[in-house]
Fold this protein.
Amino acid sequence: MTQLCVPIFVESAEQARRDVAIAAEAGADLVELRIDSLTEPINISGFTRAIVTCRPEFEGGHSTLPDAQRIELLRATSRTGAAYVDVELETYRRNKSITEHFSIPLIISAHDFKGRPEKLHNLVMELNSIEGSIDKIVWMARSIRDNLEAFELLQATKPTIALCMGEAGLISRVLAKKFGAFLTFASLRDESATAPGQVTIADMKRLYRWDALNTNTKVYGVVGSPVVHSMSPAIHNASFERVGHDGVYLPLLVNPGYESFKAFMETFLAFKPLDLAGLSVTIPHKENALRYLKEKGAKIEELGERIGTINTIVIDRSSGDLNLSGFNTDYAAILDTITSALKISREQLCELRVAVIGAGGTGRTAVAALAEYGATVVVYNRTFERAEELAREFNGRSGRVVAARMEKLCDSCCHVFVNTTSVGMHPNVDASPLGDHLPGFTAETLVFDTIYNPMETKLLKQAKSAGAKTVGGVEMFVRQAVRQFEAWTNKPAPLDLMRQVVEARLKA
Ligand SMILES: NC(=O)c1ccc[n+]([C@@H]2O[C@H](COP(=O)([O-])OP(=O)(O)OC[C@H]3O[C@@H](n4cnc5c(N)ncnc54)[C@H](OP(=O)(O)O)[C@@H]3O)[C@@H](O)[C@H]2O)c1
C-alpha cells in the first residue's frame, strides 16, 4: 500500500516533534525529517515512522557538510529510531560502502530540478542494480506527458518512488497510489512544501480522495492552462464521494496550442492503465477539443459543433474499443439556469425576448443556445461589430437574433438579461455592464449574471433593488458540472452538494 509521507524541515527537535504530531493527526503514514540545516544529530525516538534525509546543496537541499559528516549525521540520527534513510545516488556513487553504515533500508534518490534527466533509463538501471534499496527518482515535469513515464517506472517490481515536480506533475503525486508507488509526498502546509507542485496533506486526503484511491480508480480531469485555481476538482471529487463512484478528478495542465492538446490526448488515451474516463475542457482548449474530436471522427453534439467549442469529453472503453464523444454543457447550463429561475420549459423560451450582453465565448454560447430554442435575442456588445457578426451567424436558425449598441441597453424591454461580459468580476466588483442607467426592470424580469466571483455582482444588486428576479453564475457553473458528472457516471448528480462546494470555496 502506497504510504503518504509528510516532509518536515527540522530546525529543532521540539519543532520537529510538534510537526510530526500534526502530520500524524492529519493522516500521514510516514514523515520525512529533512535535517539539512543541522550539524548535530537529534533524538527522534517516539516519532511516527520516519525517513531521515540530509539533502546536500548539490541535490537541491541546504546541507553544506562534506559527505563523511553528512553520512555520520544521518547514521547517528537514524539510529535513534528512523525507519528509512534517504541518500542521493550521487552520494552513494562516491561512498559505495554506505550501505554498511545503516541497518535500515536506504532510499537512493535522484532529483532533476530542470527537467527530465537526459539519461533517465540509465539512471533507473543504475538505481535498480543497488540491492535492497528503494529507488527514488524525481524530476521537473516538462509537460503533463512526463507523468506517464513516472507511472511506467512505478510498474517495476522493486519498491519505487517516481514523481514529477511542478504544477504539471501534480497528477504523479496523487496517482502514485493508483500505480502502487512506495510512497508519495504531501506537505503539512502550503508554505512547508519541499518540492514545487507538492499538494497539502489536507488536499490529498479530502480534495483528491486519497483513502478511496485504488488500482481501478477511474481518472477524470479538467484540461486547461491555467488550471490550478479551478473549482472543478472540488465539485466532482466531492460528488464522486457522495454517490460512491470510484473516480478521481484532477487538474490537468496542458500548454496552450493545438499541438500540445493533441499530444496530450494521444499519449493519455494510449496509456490504458490510467483508466482515463472523462475530461472537462476549459480555456484555452475548448476549440482544440472540438478540432481533435472531429479529426478522430468522434461523436460530437450538433449544437456544440455549431457553437464551435466543446467542454466535455466522454471516454468509453466498455465495448473494448475506444469511443470518444464530445459536447458542450455550458449552453445547456445557460438554458437550465434561465428555465429553472423562470419555472418554464425550454420550449417556452420562444415566447421570450432576451438581452445577451457580451459577444465573447460565453456570449456566443448563450446566443446559440437561446436562438436554437426560438427566443428573440438582442446582442449588446462594447465592440458593436462583434455583436453584428454573432447576430448574422445565428439569426433565423430558429429564433431571431439582432445586434444593438451597448448605449441602447438602458432602453431595452427584454424579459431576460444575461451578462456574459467580465464587467463586475473580481476584483472590479464596483462595475456593472449597465453603468448607472437601468432598463425598465419589473418583477417579471430575470437578470442572470454569468459571473460567479463575486457571487452577487453589482449588476445583480442593481436588479434586485429594482425588483427583478436574479440568478448568479454559480448556478451556471454548477449546472454545467451536473451534466458532465451525469455523462461520465450515469448517476444523478448531487446538485445541492455541488452548489454548497462552490459557494464554500467562493466564500473562503
Ligand atoms: N458561470 C460560469 O460557469 C461561467 C463560465 C464561463 C464564463 N463565465 C463568465 O463569462 C465571462 C466572460 O467569459 P468569456 O470567456 O466569454 O470571455 P471573452 O470571450 O473574453 O469575452 C468577454 C466579453 O466581455 C466584454 N468586455 C470585456 N471587458 C469589457 C468592458 N470593460 N466593458 C464592456 N465589455 C467588456 C467583451 O467585449 P468586446 O467584444 O468589446 O471585447 C466580450 O464581449 C467571464 O467573466 C466569466 O465570469 C461564467
In short: The CA atoms of residues 294 and 300 lie 8 Å apart. The chain has 17 helices and 20 strands. The chain has a mean pLDDT of 96. The pocket of NAP is lined by residues 358-363, 381-383, 386, 420-423, 425, 450-452, 473, 476-477, 480 (CB under 6 Å).
